[in-house]
Amino acid sequence: MARTKRELLQNHLGRLIDHELGPHDRLPTERDLAEEFAVSRMTVRQALERLERERRVYRVQGAGTFVAPPAITKSIELTSFSDDMRSRGLLPGSRLRIAEDVPAGADIGFALGLSPSASVVHIERVRTADGEPMCLEHTYLTGSVVPGLLDEPLGGSLYEVLRERYRITLVRAEQTIRATVLDQATAELLAVPAFSPALLVERTAFDQRDRPVERAVSTYRGDRYNYQIALARPTIH
User: Per the database record, which ranges form the HTH gntR-type domain (predicted)?
Assistant: First the structure.
């Protein structure tokens, strides 16, 4: 049975990704692919969007479409606070306290691979579940990759904003979790007594181009939040 032009295009793109190009290599332009396979640019765009959903490629506005690196298997999924709360059957929310451009400084600059003087977007929010405070979240994002972010609504999932406006998908993270207690100011924001137990979560998240994009420092109420980690004993040969 003869293959359609769309099938030939999809097979060609799959062969390029699997056998001819490496991670972060650029695919041919939509125009070139449309001319080569005698299809509309809309057909090409739909094929590329499908590959993007499958995380086989990523798209950079104004630059083109690139081969995504192989997926990394993780024992803990990288999810937004909003997705995490929804998975628990809770309604996520936010109380925005600060949204500003600031110099990265030494610690944030080191985490994001930036000069201390480089600009980052700092967002401070109290994250809620069914209206109840759950954590105080400080998020720092590389300013050069999210121009105009402060003009966006910041009450929902930042990961959704990054994905929909900037075509940035955070695919892996380096994270530490440690026990702490709440100082007076943070305890008041989270509606618990001072010196209550809490979890301090520090995370650097990387996008599909393996760039550090987000540094998040979140303080979670210890009485309402926990991490579940699945462990497996390695096979002994």
Answer: 2-70
